[in-house]
Amino acid sequence: MKIVTICGAGIGSSGILKVNAERVLRKLGVEATVIAADIASVKQVAADAQVILTSNEFVEAIGKTNASVIVIENYFDTAELSTKLEGALG
Questions:
Q1: How many helices, marked H, and strands, marked E, lie in the chain?
Q2: For residue 30, which of 3, 16, 25, 44 is within the disulfide window of CB 3.0 to 4.6 Å?
Q3: What is the number of structural domains in the chain?
Q4: Considering the domain boundaries, does residue 36 fall inside one?
Q5: Are 68 and 78 in contact (CB under 8 A)?
Q6: Strands 2-7 and 68-71
Q7: CB 67 within 8 A of CB 12
Q8: Strand ranges (E), the chain
Q9: Widest CA span of the chain, in angstroms?
Q10: Confidence band (pLDDT; 50, 70, 90) for 89?
Q11: Structural domain span for residue 24
């Protein structure tokens, strides 16, 4: 499974989201590759992704995709991440 975290520059908030998503996935017992990327490269990086994690501001820019786009309100809230990832993966 491939999960991509998206933010404006691909460094700050997507990096935080990547680390927290990896923690949640370990707790859930789900094996996945998690990649942090910027919005400009989303089409290439997420072409084969099953899930894209991002904030509401980037949903429109992501556009049409085969991946499940999950909006995360609080990148530090592992409970929110866990609930939303379980919903998308279940």
A1: 4, 4
A2: 25
A3: 1
A4: yes
A5: no
A6: unpaired
A7: no
A8: 2-7, 33-38, 51-54, 68-71
A9: 31
A10: confident
A11: 2-75
The amino acid at residue 65 is T
Domain containing residue 60: CATH number: 3.40.50.2300
How far apart, in Å, are the Cα atoms of 80 and each of 2, 21, 45, 63? 19, 10, 24, 23
SS3 of 80, please? helix
**pTM (2 decimals)?**
0.91
Residues 75 and 20 sit within 8 Å (Cβ to Cβ) = yes
Query: Which two tokens mark 12?
Result: 């700050």
Average pLDDT over residues 56-76: 91
72-81 average pLDDT score: 92
Question: Is 32 domain-assigned?
Answer: yes
Would residue 38 count as lying in a domain?
A: yes
